[in-house]
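User: Could you check the structure of this?
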Amino acid sequence: MSKQFNAEIVSVGTELLLGQIANTNAQWLSKKLAELGINVYHHSVVGDNLERVRRVFAAANERANIVIVTGGLGPTEDDLTREAFQLLSKKEMEIHAPSLEKIEKYFRNNYITMTPNNKRQARVFKGSIVLENPIGMAPGMIVETNQVTWIFLPGVPREMKQLTTEKVLPYLEKKTGKKDVIQSQVLKFIGIGESTLEHELIDLIQTQTNPTIAPLAQNDGVVIRITAKGENKEHVRHMLDETRKKILSRVGDYYYGTDEETIEERLISLLKEKELTIASAESLTGGLFMSRLISVSGASEVCLGGIIGYDTNVKRKLLGVSDETISSVGTVSEACALEMARGAKEKLQSSLAISFTGVAGPAEVEGKPAGTVYIGICSASGKSEVAEFSFQGERNTVRERAVKKGLEMLYHYLKKLE
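Assistant: Sure, the predicted structure tokens are below.
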């Protein structure tokens, strides 16, 4: 029976715990290890404290046979990765002459006085495989001890990625024999809640083995992550495709993209496919909707522009909202949303237009409570629709939720157009 390789990734740095930077290193490393068929069962993050780092290392040593550590290899007193591992392993350290020479050369070439603590970065464990750092100061290391492979990498993402790609992955590929391949695919949905999506797929989820199916809520909808494990990439890809077909046969109406594709990118693609242009009329959203669309490369082919009609007179003069609508039902109304959409379409000569009006809060407007939002869509064919919503949250949360709902409405509107 072939040996199973289980990895743990330990990220060292108080800045990670304080939320000052995101732990993107662990995410990236997990993907790379999965491609080698190496299971990652734990991510650990620990601050710059010697005893706490030692305890985390001790736990990882019991749980995994591959431990990858990022960070804590710098020159200052709070860079304690080596010291913590020394307490655990009792291994001696020595100066790696090529790394020290590189560090000293850097300071000489930049006419900077090198302080003694910079020599700390050149320390390595005796008998380790030294991973010379081509773009940074501190080298990485691979240490085999007590049937556990320890890999120490710099915390700077570009340094970590280069050492991993050039040195670590080839080492692990040789060590593990690259038995199984693990790949994931993310399916993205909009307009359906997580609980409803799970209900529609409950039998598939409950009987999952390989591939596995996991619904997850995200900011712009719900995603399903399918993960498959197999002997080669072709086998895994076939399993992913077959599972994807089963899922989309049930909830395909809400599906808009895969993996990194965004709802904005899908909308721009649909508008191009249908040879349509779009304009917006935005009151409470203040241009946020059109900003989301034009963040996509190539949006200029289909996005003509937007009118921010925040003031009532702007709604009247630029968007053509009638005095009768304003006096009878007000600017926070279905009628106003529809007239705003029509006005933007006519003014900017677009194929269709979308409008937003409502109450962001905190106070009510025209007798309507905070969170009341109307979104209208109007096309050249005369087909139009308006929907009323009530969003919870503070002012900017309401605005962001209105934009998200507008993206959803526009997507389903475009899908229905012939």
